[in-house]
Design a protein that fits this description.
single chain; alpha/beta; five-stranded mixed sheet
């Protein structure tokens, strides 16, 4: 799957970046394991805390307070801002709540938002997964790569 993404980006002379919260760098790891990834991968920010979301990704704190860090609004902003920070053609963001506890009353355990941004589109997908943390990270990483393939490569 990640081979398909790297090949597509290389062939189309495009680049990608990530803003990862709930996947904690797992997306980046999947891409950098592919030889030649440095040609298409501009970087990633693991913005696990609200501090890093606001101070590194420039997410508006009011949006986090109003919508939750685990929301479509914040997920889209994460993807857009990572794309700007890294000057990439595409960006994928992940934000979710793997549990077992929740940090606010606006999101539930198992909620996740995956966003893809380009200069032309910004799309978001909500997923709810009930599993342990390690499985949550693996499944969201897989969903993110599939979402990119189905949204960008197959369109």
């Amino acid at each position: 799957m990640e081979n398909k993404i790297v090949d597509f980006l290389r062939e189309s002379n495009k680049t990608i970046s990530f803003a990862e919260s709930c996947t904690g760098g797992a997306l980046s790891k999947r891409i950098v394991l592919i030889p030649g990834a440095s040609e298409i991968f501009h970087g990633s920010i693991v913005s696990y805390s609200n501090y890093s979301k606001t101070n590194i990704l420039n997410i508006n704190i009011e949006d986090i307070q109003k919508y939750s860090a685990v929301s479509e609004k914040v997920s889209k902003e994460m993807a857009i801002n990572a794309m700007k920070i890294f000057n990439s053609d595409y960006s994928i963001s992940t934000t979710g709540n793997a549990g077992p506890s929740v940090t606010d009353n606006l999101s539930d355990r198992g909620d996740c938002f995956i966003s893809i941004a380009s200069k032309e589109i910004v799309v978001c997908k909500k997923i709810k997964i009930d599993c342990d943390r390690q499985s949550f990270i693996s499944k969201i990483t897989e969903e993110s790569l599939n979402f990119f393939i189905n949204t960008i490569i197959k369109s």
